[in-house]
Amino acid sequence: MLLRKTAWFWKSGLAVISFVLMLSVSGCSDAPPEEDTVSETVIDIQTIPEEPQENAEEIINICIDLYKKAAEENKIDDLETIRSIVNQFGENGYPAVDSRNQIDMTEAEQVEWFCEMVDTQEEAEITIIEVSYLGGFVKYDLKTKDGNVDVVRSYYKYENGNMKREVTGSYQAEYWNYTEDGYLMFSGVWFSEELYVLTLSGAEEHTALRVQPLDETYRELSRKYLLPIGFEQNNMFIVDWSEDDFGDLNFYDMYDLLYQKINGTYTPYVADDNLGVGAVYRIPKDDFESVIMAYFNIDSETLQSKTIYYAEDETYEYKPRGFEEVEYPEYPYSEVVGFTENSDGTLTLTANVVFPYAGDSKVYAHEVVVRPLENGSVQYVSNRIIPSEDNYRETWNTPRLTAEEWEEIYGGE
Length: 413
What we know:
By secondary structure, the chain is α+β, with helices and mostly antiparallel strands. The protein is 23% helix and 33% strand. Strand 4 and strand 5 form a beta hairpin.
């Protein structure tokens, strides 16, 4: 079910805070130069309702001992620690899941019931806990009436033996969808008094909570082979390619990504401090190829044909991403939903691409073939987008500049 609303604030009889902004503008409009124009904007924002307190203390007491133990063992972000916290909430009757959707939601039937109440436009309320890997959790208090969903979002952080509420905000869900793939996805702009005083605006939030369980083997495959690559500044999982034809796979982006995994640090070949200057480097052949060939079964000749290579000094030309190639920092992630063990020792992983920012749990599906190696590492063999008329455009991806675009912007500098 989809709900699209224009109101983002709680409808209540609470007091109204009025902010009057006086903005003087001089010399930057169509008014005569000798005159100043003054515009006045009045913004009325309803007071943020207090978080429901009847269960806040109870929820803290449920998990505080686990957080103390995790902090003592320096395992606050450990998957098994998060799992124990999620399950502890479930044992006490609360729907809970981790923020990366790597653990089956507890008390999922309560969430399904609430979604049914939204669909039938009945009154209902629920509390859902989203456990973070940063040492805390978000408590969503949801209420529905007439098909609308109001959200109170409270973030709690563990610190020095205590669980402290950091911020509470609220909004009416502008988007609400319980998807066929088992995700509850909702979004809106939430407001807190502290945030509004500082920014005069709210914070946009896109929440994706997996409600339906997923085979643990699928999750392990995702964590091992797909999530480490991801979608940030690379096109490995958004174009078709294989060892026989690497197609449009960008090996410069792969070098950036894989260099970090091999060396534990970012590549030293960085953009110029002057944004108007395009930096150009020449990376020694062995240095460049050792990174790429650790993850791909590709020979030098093929790699050189997909890049710019100088045979005279055996170097690869490299241009770091610049300002024009920056991406909006909202990315999807791949979630394995099936796999096949092939006779040649490779694995074919079928995955859905989940994009919380778009409120879609399957912007498209793809097949990735990987070759596990004896030393525990992996080679990536191919990627294939599964065709569908519902496939979503990869709006998050900004390709590297072409040679012509780079020349036009930097003029050969």
